[in-house]
Every structure is written in structure tokens, then in C-alpha cells.
TrEMBL record:
It comes from Chrysemys picta bellii. The chain crosses the membrane at residues 12-32. Keywords: Membrane, Transmembrane, Transmembrane helix. The lineage of its organism: Eukaryota, Metazoa, Chordata, Craniata, Vertebrata. This is Cytochrome P450. The keyword Transmembrane applies. GO terms for molecular function: heme binding; iron ion binding; monooxygenase activity; oxidoreductase activity, acting on paired donors, with incorporation or reduction of molecular oxygen.
Length: 139
């Protein structure tokens, strides 16, 4: 029977240990992210969530309109366990969020001024059109 050291030192054992370390690191990151979002959303009332699915159950997504009536200002929305959004239903709340000016929010004027304009390229030039006009004149 091989010892643990011999198993870890061969290439496949070493790769397995690296993969396991990556999976554990990602699980810790997801756990911290969920705890951070739970702390942020703690002060906002909202519908109950499933610990794994969040609000992704088929009946709950159909209830968004009733949630907007039940929670008229805003409520958290969970897509799975680790992705949470704050659904804002009131214009004053939206104004407060967008006027905050943090690095996560982008105002509409900033978006419009920084976006690249769409340039339409014309596939023919004036000389091509002159050739078409002269060909029509010859007919």
C-alpha cells in the first residue's frame, strides 16, 4: 500500500490536490460574497427565499408583480444562492441610488457620453455613383 506522501508526489495526485485547493478557495469566496450580500440586504424586507434556489422556483418568479405591490419601495431578489439584486419599485429610491455616484452605478449621461458612436460605412463612393449615372445615360 502506498503512503500518502507517495500519492501526493506523483503528477496526478499533485493535480488533484491543486484542483481541490481551487475548489475550496472558490467555495470560501462564494460564502464570503453571500454573507456580504446578506448583510447588505438585511435592512430591506422581502419575500422568503430558498437556501439553494433563491427565487428561481417556477412559482416565485411569476409573483414579481405581487411582490412589487407587497413591498412598494424595494425588495431583494435572489437568483440562486450567491447572486442577489435589489429590485427598486419606487422612483425616489431609484433617484437616491443613481445620484449616489459610486463606482458601481453609472448615470445615464455618463453612459451616453462614453459610449462609442455607431458608424455606418457606406459601401460605395461618389465615383461609383457617377459610373452608374453614366451607364444609365448611355441606355
Amino acid at each position: 500500500m502506498k503512503s500518502v506522501l507517495e500519492t501526493v508526489m506523483n503528477p496526478s495526485g499533485l493535480m488533484a490536490m491543486v484542483c481541490l485547493a481551487c475548489v475550496v478557495l472558490k467555495a470560501i469566496q462564494l460564502y464570503w460574497r453571500r454573507q456580504k450580500l446578506l448583510k447588505i440586504f438585511k435592512s430591506f424586507p422581502g419575500p422568503p427565499t430558498h437556501w439553494l434556489y433563491g427565487h428561481l422556483q417556477k412559482d416565485e418568479l411569476d409573483n414579481r408583480a405581487s411582490w412589487a405591490e407587497q413591498y412598494p419601495r424595494c425588495h431583494p431578489m435572489w437568483l440562486g444562492s450567491f447572486l442577489g439584486f435589489l429590485c427598486i419599485n419606487h422612483p425616489e429610491y431609484a433617484k437616491a441610488v443613481f445620484s449616489r455616484g459610486g463606482k458601481d452605478t453609472v448615470s445615464l449621461t455618463t453612459y451616453i457620453s462614453k459610449r462609442r458612436p455607431c458608424i455606418t460605412t457606406i459601401s460605395f463612393t461618389g465615383s461609383v455613383l457617377k459610373g452608374v449615372d453614366s451607364a444609365r445615360a448611355a441606355d
